[in-house]
Amino acid sequence: MTGPIDAVVAIHNAFRQDISLIDAAALDSARGKPGLAATVERFKFFNEVLEWHAHGEELAIFPALEAVAPSVAEAYVKDHRALDAAFDALSKAVSVRDPLETARATKAFKFYLDVHLDKEDAHLYRLIKERVSVPDQGQAVGVMASTVPQDRFPELVGWMFPLMGNDDRENMTRIWQMVMPPEAFAGATQLVEEAIGDDWSELTRRIPELEGAH
């Protein structure tokens, strides 16, 4: 059964997919392959989304965990600060237009982020699922979602859904259906349809009530 935390895991998977694309482009660019600058530059928006995500965790998820598993979240806050430093190194490498240093910095950023997300999924969010009630999970995820500026939500959907597999798309859409007012959900699913194009038919097959929802 889909629960609120599945939305967070889905976003983690989108992060993994995108940083893999950015890392591959940075490596190919360092090897002299042209036309990859725009893909490498994606790291700026990528990190914006990552900052919203991390801020939401620190604002809502980590306090919820602290109530049932004291001191566990402390190490993950330190991870966030380390990721900030890794991003600063990457941003500096791109700004001086050093392809080799950019590839090195991107690889380091990807490695640390992958380890961090894997730990969260296997440890932190498992504890949340086991020890925090579903209503409290939903409340925490709602607060977390509120850290995304409303005017940037279309950008977020346009970035996130193409990076997701069908299972994550379904989970995220079902969670939105549970927590959003009908009008907001209709607007969100229209953005999803625009973002995933021909794949919309698979999502409506999985969630038939989406057909004609907007």
Topology of this structure?
Blueprint: H1 4-30, H2 37-66, H3 72-95, H4 99-131, H5 134-145, H6 153-163, H7 166-179, H8 182-196, H9 200-206
Detailed description of the structure:
The protein folds into 2 domains: 1-148, nmb1532 protein domain like (Four Helix Bundle (Hemerythrin (Met), subunit A)); 150-214, no CATH class. The model has no long low-confidence stretch (mean pLDDT 94). It is an all-alpha fold and 214 residues long. The protein is 81% helix and 0% strand.
Brief descriptors of the model:
214 residues, mainly alpha, Four Helix Bundle (Hemerythrin (Met), subunit A), 0% strand
Give a quick precis of the structure.
The protein has about 210 residues and is an all-alpha fold. The protein has helices at about 5-30, 35-65, 70-95, 100-130, 135-145, 155-165, 165-180, 180-195, 200-205. The chain folds into two domains: about 1-150, Up-down Bundle (Four Helix Bundle (Hemerythrin (Met), subunit A)); about 150-214, no CATH class.
Beta-strand content:
under 5%
The CATH C-level name of the largest domain is Mainly Alpha
Q: Tally the helices: what do you get? A: 9
The arrangement of helices and strands along the chain is: HHHHHHHHH
CATH architecture of the largest domain: Up-down Bundle
Task: State the end-to-end CA separation.
Answer: 26 Å
What's the name of the CATH homologous superfamily of the largest domain?
nmb1532 protein domain like
Mean pLDDT: 94
Return Rg in Å: 18 Å
Number of strands: 0
Task: Identify the overall geometry.
Answer: globular
Largest sheet: none
Derived from helix and strand composition plus strand pairing, the structural class reads mainly alpha
Contiguous runs where pLDDT drops below 50 for at least 5 residues: none
Helical fraction: over 70%
CATH fold type of the largest domain: Four Helix Bundle (Hemerythrin (Met), subunit A)
How many independent structural domains?
Answer: 2
